[in-house]
Amino acid sequence: MKTLYIVRHGETDWNKMGGKYQGITDVPLNENGLNQAKACGQALKDVKFDRILSSDLSRALVTAEAIRGDRTTPITVDERLRELNFGDWEAMLFSDIEARWPGLIDEMYLRPHLVKVPNGESFKDLQDRAWAGLEEFINANDEEETLLIACHGGTIRTLLCKLLDISISHCWNFSQGNTAINRIFYNGMGEFDHNVLNLLNDTAHVDVLQGHE
User: Fold this and answer.
1) 0.85 cut: is pTM over it?
2) Is residue 13 packed enough to be buried (19+ CB in 10 Å), middle (13-18) or exposed (0-12)?
3) Looking only at Cα atoms, what is the longest distance across the chain?
4) Relative to the CA of 9, which of 22, 36, 101, 176 has its CA 20 to 30 Å away?
């Protein structure tokens, strides 16, 4: 068995705006996001990570580095772990997208398995590339290990669906706050294997940071 800690990146200014898709655009962590990443690292300070995998986008990689802290654990960077490519929607405000493509944002949230962003990706595209990267990383070592994976909200949602054998149509059923910690006990992807979601969207360290214990 392998234990997977899958963590979303810290906050960016575009996250804070709440109305702008950043997708594969390399938007850095803001000051709050850096503090969230450090707090997440503190929450996981006693976990011995054997290997670390991160998206190559800086908001994920800096989060991975903050969680690693003083450990010497190597970080593997893989662009396949990037967020959904929002194509024509990259860096656009939700209001502008709605004006140009009426109803398509709502359709993406209602039927994520059916929508492909104009000149971008579908959630199935995202799942296929992200899983290819994660599966390769997991299978690089046959031993029992504890792995850290730092990436993005959409990426994590599609990976959880894959790991739990759930239709991608349910990907929005999983909340993912900034620096949310998810833990999965991974046993394999065979017909009779069962992966166990042991922890979902744990952001207690962020609540403490904001004084909301």
Assistant:
1) yes
2) middle
3) 52
4) 101
Q: Is 165 exposed, middle or buried (0-12, 13-18, 19+ CB in 10 A)?
A: exposed
Dist CA 121 CA 130 (whole Å) = 12
- Distance (Å, whole) CA 173 – CA 154: 11
Q: Would you put residue 203 in left (φ > 0), alpha (ψ -120 to 50) or beta?
A: alpha
Say how far apart CA 48 and CA 75 lie, in whole Å: 14
Predicted local distance difference test score (pLDDT) of residue 20: 84
Distance CA 12, CA 5 (A): 21
Q: Which one, of 80, 34, 70, 75, lies nearest residue 179 by Cα?
A: 34
Active site residues per annotation: 9, 83
